[in-house]
Hints:
The protein is of the alpha+beta class and 691 residues long. The chain has six domains: 8-68, Helix Hairpins (Orthogonal Bundle); 92-326, 2-Layer Sandwich (D-amino Acid Aminotransferase, Chain A, domain 1); 330-426, CATH 2.40.50.140; 442-513, 5' to 3' exonuclease, C-terminal subdomain (DNA polymerase, domain 1); 520-607, Orthogonal Bundle (DNA polymerase, domain 1), CATH 1.10.150; 612-689, Rossmann fold. 37% of the residues lie in helices and 19% in strands. The chain is built from 25 helices and 24 strands. The protein has a five-stranded mixed β-sheet with strand order 2-13-10-3-9. Helix 1 (8-31) runs antiparallel to helix 2, helix 12 crosses helix 13 and helix 17 (520-526) packs across helix 18 (534-544). The longest helix is centred in the first third of the chain and has 24 residues, at 8-31. It is globular and about 90 Å long. Residues 343, 418, 420-421, 423, 436, 438, 442, 444 line the site of zinc ion (ZN). Residues 343, 418, 420-421, 423, 436, 438, 442, 444 line the site of zinc ion.
Amino acid sequence: xxxxGMSEADAANELMRLARTIAKHNRLYHAExxxxxxxxxxxxxxxxxxxxxxxxxxLIRPDSPSALVGHEVAASPLSKVRHEVRMMSLDNAFSDxxxxxxxxxVRRFLNLPADAEVAMTAEDKIxxxxxxxxxENGKLVRAATRGDGQVGExxxxxxxxxxxxxxxxKGEGLFDVPAMxxxxxxxxxxxxxxxxLNERQAEAGDKVFANPRNAxxxxxxxxxxxxxxxxxxxxxxxxxxxxxxxxxATQFEMMRKIAAWGVPVSPLLVRxxxxxxxxxxxxxxxQARADLPYDIDGVVYKVxxxxxxxxxxxxxxxxxxxMAHKFPAERAETTLxxxxxxxxRTGKLTPxxxxxxxxxxxxxxxxxxxxxxxxxxxxxxxxxxxVVLQRAGDVIPQVVENLTRxxxxxxxxxxxxxxxxxxxxxxxxxxxxxxxxGGLICPAQRVERLKHFVSRAALDIEGLGEKTIVEFFxxxxxxxxxxxxxxxxxxxDIVGREGWKDKSVGNLLAAxxxxxxPDAARLLFGLxxxxxxxxxxxxxxxxxxxxxxxxxxxxxxxxxDSDAVADLLSIDGVGPVVVEALGDFFHEHHxxxxxxxxxxxxxxxxYVVETRASAVAGKTVVFxxxxxxxxxxxxxxxxxxxxxRAAGSVSPKTDLIVAGPGAxxxxxxxxxxxxxxxxxxxxxxxxxxxx
Length: 691
Ligand SMILES: NC(=O)c1ccc[n+]([C@@H]2O[C@H](COP(=O)([O-])OP(=O)(O)OC[C@H]3O[C@@H](n4cnc5c(N)ncnc54)[C@H](O)[C@@H]3O)[C@@H](O)[C@H]2O)c1
Ligand SMILES: [Zn+2]
């Protein structure tokens, strides 16, 4: 949705969702070293948040992600270190224009004439994790990670084994090392070291890291420093924090000093006199990128003069004097070693390319989807071809080019039978996809349907992942979704299996029990009816409220009842294709069996429209006193999104009062009128439970 013309309630809602989503990805990325989405996608969320905040400044949340650096280290087993000078993040630029705008902004801030030279340093932005090294009288006394910028983790023992980090700085006499100086830089892992570490990890059956950054972070942040010692970590300095003295007038000079003290700095660090220079250096580094021994994700510019840096200061979580110019999606070349066919839930045959492992955009890629028969033909792909891969704003890498398509070799023959059940595989008219016609006899389709049923967007049963589904399916314990709810009868069988303990089985069964009253829309989506996605499922239930009513409408529509058809089509986003798919589904005898069986195990409550799915729907709420975690506007927007009305004063019509400290006279009145009063935390709980 475009930000213009957005209502406050929608904006507040989206900001709330973004704050949650971004916080989750920050935790996964920074605290757990296990990101779930690619950086470009994360960056897009952050941008969207910034856009909304710019348009609705009064809705900026106290927990706004734009003011947060990294992730707090509360749960870390390492001891905590409070940074004397905060460790910051960097703002991003993605285009040349944004770089020019950055320089112009610096000039405006410093009130310099438009043609004044603003020298900047430019260097590669290494993809590792920030580390602050505190030297007192030239000796390393403390090393700390960034954490949330204010409090990081103590990794002094861990860095002791990193050769790039000297225990003592060089150069008394010749160079003056200040009494106290914190060198800041990046702990990273070289690409080659990362690949061989992963090989060793895989052989030993240990965790394989997604990319060098995660490997570096996971290796450094170890309670047992001997683990770190065995990992090939490196360090490059790119700045400094607290210092008793800064013995230079420019960034560039100071970095030279740090290098002279014996701490490595980037060999690609240069000083630029204009944005033209900066962008030229960016291009040069981009060219060199693939050949660098380590992963980089952009170039960092910093205002060279330190007195100017000081005047420019900081905004929110980043310095005004610095900028990261990010690279676009990365490409890499590799060999297509095999083409496997996977059979999906609907019988679709998807070709998957098995690749010689290659790093693209910081992630090792070994598989790539080739989509369908036409895509293979378009690229002229055959086993053995050299291909170009790209990872753009997407986790999913793509083959974008076949470098050896002109070599005279036989074309790939797309299978005309299902590799799982040997049924004929056909493609319906006008469709690109080839499908297995085996339907219910095809084990691949059956197991995929079960996986879909428990997936995140569907029932989302914790602890019941794809592996477990495959395991139980293989044992014949799971034929259809209803069987999941009968697993409790197999408790002792499961406990007897390898990898299962009494406790984990207990957790699994409890998670299953918790879904006996599932959300009706998720349940509908989970059944995997063609063309009924998560959104359509919700829209359908908003109109029909319960599954039996929906089923009746679908069946009537199939029998040609024009009222039922019109009723279905009146739903936004539901067209003839969906109506037909629903009708077909509820016409099939087996589907009805599966359905009835499932509904004998679970009872989804009536579906209530989102804005009213809260304890306060239709009620009048008054906020009073000082609210601590949100603004008054945000509180009102929340109330509206929950279907409540926010009023300014207490009256007999008031249903609920949310009171912060200093609520005073309104509370007295509430007591007189016998109105329920809750505190902010209880309100937050209502908001949370309304989802
Ligand atoms: N995929 C995800 O789920 C996810 C989640 C959170 C963050 N991220 C990614 O992490 C990044 C945001 O994290 P961030 O706050 O650490 O910001 P950042 O990595 O974009 O930039 C700031 C950091 O860059 C590092 N850096 C490297 N070279 C530098 C140099 N030459 N000079 C100065 N600093 C240099 C420093 O450690 C500094 O803290 C983004 O790239 C984002 O896409 C991804
Ligand atoms: Zn099949």
